[in-house]
Amino acid sequence: MLKAFKEEDSRGRKQREKPIGSRPFFMDFLTITKSKAYRRLNDKTQAFSLPEHPHIRTRASHTGEVLANASYISESLGLNTDLCMAIAAGHDIGHVPYGHLGEKVLTSIGKKLDKKPFHHAIYSVVLAQEVEKRGRGLNLCFETLEGILHHPVGSGKLNIDYSKPAEYHVVMFADKISYTFADYSDANRTGYFPKEKYAALVEKLNRTFGKETQERREACINALIKESRAKGRISFSEGPEFELFAELRDTMFKEVYPIVDGELHETTLKKLYKFIDTSPEFTEKYNGFDPITFISLLTDKEVTYFGHLLFKSKSIHLKDIQHFGAFELMPELKNKKIEYWNPGLDW
To answer: Which class would CATH give 22-259?
Structure first.
């Protein structure tokens, strides 16, 4: 039987001086949407970086779609919509410039320094606890943070830990359904989806779900709601809607995401890391603050601006990028040792 998570069962907030209140998760939602990390999502990659087409998703517009879909699922199933909204709002705040590509680059840099992999879900929790509010953190409820941590499942099977609140799974499915159809739509806009090779799949999608992105998502969401009611737990694992969704998702991971050209992005990130890492001024002024963590606080536009400086063959100095938003945070962060791989939920 599906049960909504109750506010009185929350483990509360790390800093107890803030009262739990009657709607703590709604307060978390409002807190996240007012954060700097949330605002930076406007200039971060969803699937295609720095889109000139206004209808191609950014990480911010993707987050809005997940919010809408998670809220609809939760309301339909009688779950805690406030908790779903809070998790959905924060689920991607830890994404770095250029999305998953940027994450891979920072992981490869960190690996040479014997650091653990960079993962946006973990880092979303780190940002919320260690970086926001000039290092004081947002002081979110434990369940909001844990839900953010557990939202990703990668490209494989959508496994579920049913010991966790149902609201976590709602956001996970809302995320996967949202980005699968949105990224497919944007891949068609940018010419990355091989329509001729997958003509049968395209025809099946149009025939079964309709030609509009929202129609396709609604078909899967309604199937999820129906299956979840029947099973008494959040589930989307069978039936024609799931099978077609899974086929499209697999195709996107096989044919689209790996071929999006990011060579220039990768080169720019690596050169930016080298510039920050070897800058005596940065090291001295910011007390040896980790360059990887610094770069994680930048947007696509800021890193691309650095790339433009490189193309101009200019001798770059720290003052040339001092307008980057991350520098605003540095006075309060420079003495903190932030472990981007440690969610810090053992409280």
So the answer is: mainly alpha
